[in-house]
Specification:
mainly alpha
C-alpha cells in the first residue's frame, strides 16, 4: 500500500526533520564538549560519551528517508529515557515530551502508511 505524499508535506517533513536533527546534534555536542557537568549533576557523567554518540547516530538515522523509521524508534527510546531522567531529578518534562511528539509527527508526515492497520 503506497500513498503518494504531496510536495508541501514533503517539504514540511524535511524542514522539521532537519530542525530536529540539528537540535539533537547540538544537544550531543553539549554533552561531549560544552556542558559535561550537567550530565554529572544527573549522575550520568560516566555515560555521557555513549549517550551523545547514541544521540548522534539516532538523529542521523532519523534524518534520512530510508532509515527514518529506525531513527524514530531510537529517538523515541532516547526521549523516553530523557523524560524519566527529568522526572527523577525534578526537571520539567515539557520539552522532551514536545520533542517526542514532533518526532512522531515527522514520521507520520513522511510515512503515513506506518500507522495504517492492514
Amino acid at each position: 500500500m503506497n500513498t503518494e505524499i504531496s510536495n508541501t508535506r514533503k517539504i514540511v517533513a524535511w524542514i522539521l526533520a532537519g530542525l530536529l536533527t540539528a537540535l539533537f546534534l547540538f544537544s550531543a555536542t553539549g554533552k561531549l564538549f560544552l556542558h559535561p557537568e550537567q550530565m554529572a549533576q544527573m549522575k550520568l557523567g560516566d555515560w555521557r560519551i555513549i549517550i551523545a554518540l547514541g544521540e548522534i547516530a539516532s538523529a542521523l538515522l532519523f534524518l534520512f528517508t530510508k532509515t527514518n523509521r529506525i531513527g524514530t524508534l531510537l529517538l523515541s527510546s532516547y526521549m523516553g529515557g530523557a523524560i524519566i531522567i527529568h522526572m527523577t531529578t525534578g526537571i520539567s518534562i515539557l520539552v522532551p515530551s514536545v520533542v517526542l511528539i514532533v518526532v512522531w509527527i515527522v514520521l507520520y508526515l513522511r510515512n503515513p502508511d506506518f500507522f495504517k492497520i492492514v
